[in-house]
Structure formats: structure tokens, C-alpha cells
Amino acid sequence: VTEAVRMSQIDAGKVRLERNALAMEDLLEPAISSFGSRADGRIERLSTSAGRIHVDREMMLLALRQLIDNSLKYAPPASPIRVWADGRDDRIVIHVADQGPGIPEPDRERIFEKFYRRQKLRDKVPGSGLGLHIAREIARMHGGDLWVDASEAGGSEFCLAVPRLIEAAA
Fold first, then answer.
1. Which tens digits make up the pLDDT trace of 31-63?
2. 80, 44 in Cβ contact below 8 A?
3. pTM for the whole thing?
């Protein structure tokens, strides 16, 4: 219920970010562990060499949980969900990759529309069609973006980019 309320506040533009400097581990670890036994050991956290970001921790956790939740819902039950982050120039990209059915090229932008759900999977997988829309809005509120590519292992790879924290030299 709390996440649903936060999502409606984001959508209404009534969220004020409370940014703090965070190491990626301080974001990825709680996002992954929040799934507990539901993940059944499927989430693989790969090595992260990304640095620090300046974000609203709770909002970014909400976005990451949406991405991981989608992967858990759409990928086959025994398949792994891989999560990692890497640095690219002035931003850090957090990846959530699965071995699900993948997303056809024509739908890769539409899945971020509010209430959009692919016709083929609408009756098979529960959801409202808001999660990816909200996750992208959170990324954009932070000066970043969210997109999806085809995963190397088959399936989908969601990429959430946010600006890297540039720390002044001491």
C-alpha cells in the first residue's frame, strides 16, 4: 500500500527528493534482500564497480524493486535474475537482466506508458501496468533515464541510469 501511495504521489508530481550520497551496495543490497524467500535464491548480484550516486534512497529502492519484481514475474521460475551496476562516463547504470520471454522491439518503448500491458501476457501475469512507468519517472526525476534492451542470455535487460556523484578532491 505504501508503494502504491508513493507511486500516485510521483505521478501527481508531489514528490520532493531527499538526496544523499550512496554507495551502490547501499542501494542494491536492500533492494535485493527485500524479496526474501519470494526470490528463492534466483537473484544473482554480480560484481559492481560503479562508484557513488546522489539520490533519494527510498525512491530509487522503489524503482529497483519494480524492475526486480517484473523480472521475477515474467522469467521462468528456475531462471536467474542478474543485478549489477557499472560506471559510464558521468553516470552509473544499474542493470536488471532476466531470461524471460523478452520484449519485442515495437513494445520496448510502450511498456513504459502508464497502464500499458502486453496483450499476450496480460491475462497470465498479474499487474497494473504502472510499475515501469513509475520506475522511469523516478529515474528521470534524478536526471537519469530507464530503458530496456535484449539480454545477452535471452530475455530482457532493464538499464536504469543516474548521474554519478562527482566528489570534490580533498
1. 999 998 888 889 988 877 778 899 999 999 999
2. yes
3. 0.85
